[in-house]
Amino acid sequence: MPIKVPDLLPAKAKLQEENIFVMDESRAFKQDIRPLKILILNLMPLKEQTETHLLRLLGNSPLQIDVGLLHTSTHQSKNTSPEHLRQFYQSIDDVKESKYDGLIITGAPIEMLAYEDVNYWEELSQIMEWSKTNVTSTLHICWGAMAGLYYHYGIDKFIRKEKISGIYTHTVNDSREKLLSGFDDEFLVPHSRYADFRREDIERIPELKILSESEEAGLYLIASKDGKQIYMTGHPEYDAFTLQKEYERDKAAGLNPIIPENYFPNDDPSQTPKLRWRMHSSLLFSNWLNYYVYQQTPYQL
């Protein structure tokens, strides 16, 4: 089944080129079916790129999904046009009276800031509080996971000496967990972050469970036992070239970045990286949509 997106959303054409089944609003209006309502709070600077990343994975589900896009009105985006935001995005004031089956909170490149120093922290806190009563399950990605664990449980991050950047092997901690249903014992995930969590800080919260981790990259998947809050520190939504673009951006800015680990063939940035984590990424999102959203959400929101 397809995802339903606005007729003119730029990501639609890109996804159709990749043979992803996308249904526009005009066609979806004629179907007598109740799609899942999924809201994406997009905190990334390059919002159109992130839209494509996430819609690609949501579109691989057998469920029909009605996607809405949310942004923080208290932050002025420098990398996405105001016209794009006006046409396709809403703010929390526009949706606060609505109910949603699922919410995705993306990452943001602001790990070095204290949470209270983020200029939209108050609004983000309002959204996360609203999600507890208006959303069946919320998926937090990278900095979104850090913000969520801090807001909901008071778990703070710490800054690493070196950035975690690359493709890392992860293990399944509990094969009975539905989010990991069908996973291999080992699988690959991209990471790109400076911050991390301490295991003991997670383990002291009885409501949380560590589902997956990496010997090199640390904790990866953390979930509340009721399935309403899912936190992942990596970026399974990244495409084959996202880490390359980040590396080249940081190099051009004179930041002397490390070469992403296990990413370029022979660790040679002149060679083309290969996409080796697509199966895990698709399965992760499909499992979340099926077991934590579709199987739990009421028919009448």
TrEMBL record:
<dbReference type="GO" id="GO:0019281">
    <property type="term" value="P:L-methionine biosynthetic process from homoserine via O-succinyl-L-homoserine and cystathionine"/>
</dbReference>
<protein>
    <recommendedName>
        <fullName>Homoserine O-acetyltransferase</fullName>
        <ecNumber>2.3.1.31</ecNumber>
    </recommendedName>
</protein>
<dbReference type="GO" id="GO:0005737">
    <property type="term" value="C:cytoplasm"/>
</dbReference>
<comment type="pathway">
    <text>Amino-acid biosynthesis; L-methionine biosynthesis via de novo pathway; O-acetyl-L-homoserine from L-homoserine: step 1/1.</text>
</comment>
<dbReference type="InterPro" id="IPR005697">
    <property type="entry name" value="HST_MetA"/>
</dbReference>
<feature type="active site" description="Proton acceptor">
    <location>
        <position position="235"/>
    </location>
</feature>
<keyword id="KW-0012">Acyltransferase</keyword>
<feature type="site" description="Important for acyl-CoA specificity">
    <location>
        <position position="111"/>
    </location>
</feature>
<feature type="active site" description="Acyl-thioester intermediate">
    <location>
        <position position="142"/>
    </location>
</feature>
<feature type="binding site">
    <location>
        <position position="249"/>
    </location>
    <ligand>
        <name>substrate</name>
    </ligand>
</feature>
<keyword id="KW-0808">Transferase</keyword>
<keyword id="KW-0963">Cytoplasm</keyword>
<feature type="binding site">
    <location>
        <position position="163"/>
    </location>
    <ligand>
        <name>substrate</name>
    </ligand>
</feature>
<dbReference type="GO" id="GO:0008899">
    <property type="term" value="F:homoserine O-succinyltransferase activity"/>
</dbReference>
<keyword id="KW-0486">Methionine biosynthesis</keyword>
<comment type="function">
    <text>Transfers an acetyl group from acetyl-CoA to L-homoserine, forming acetyl-L-homoserine.</text>
</comment>
<dbReference type="InterPro" id="IPR033752">
    <property type="entry name" value="MetA_family"/>
</dbReference>
<feature type="active site">
    <location>
        <position position="237"/>
    </location>
</feature>
<dbReference type="GO" id="GO:0004414">
    <property type="term" value="F:homoserine O-acetyltransferase activity"/>
</dbReference>
<keyword id="KW-0028">Amino-acid biosynthesis</keyword>
<dbReference type="InterPro" id="IPR029062">
    <property type="entry name" value="Class_I_gatase-like"/>
</dbReference>
<feature type="site" description="Important for substrate specificity">
    <location>
        <position position="192"/>
    </location>
</feature>
<comment type="similarity">
    <text>Belongs to the MetA family.</text>
</comment>
<feature type="binding site">
    <location>
        <position position="192"/>
    </location>
    <ligand>
        <name>substrate</name>
    </ligand>
</feature>
<dbReference type="Pfam" id="PF04204">
    <property type="entry name" value="HTS"/>
</dbReference>
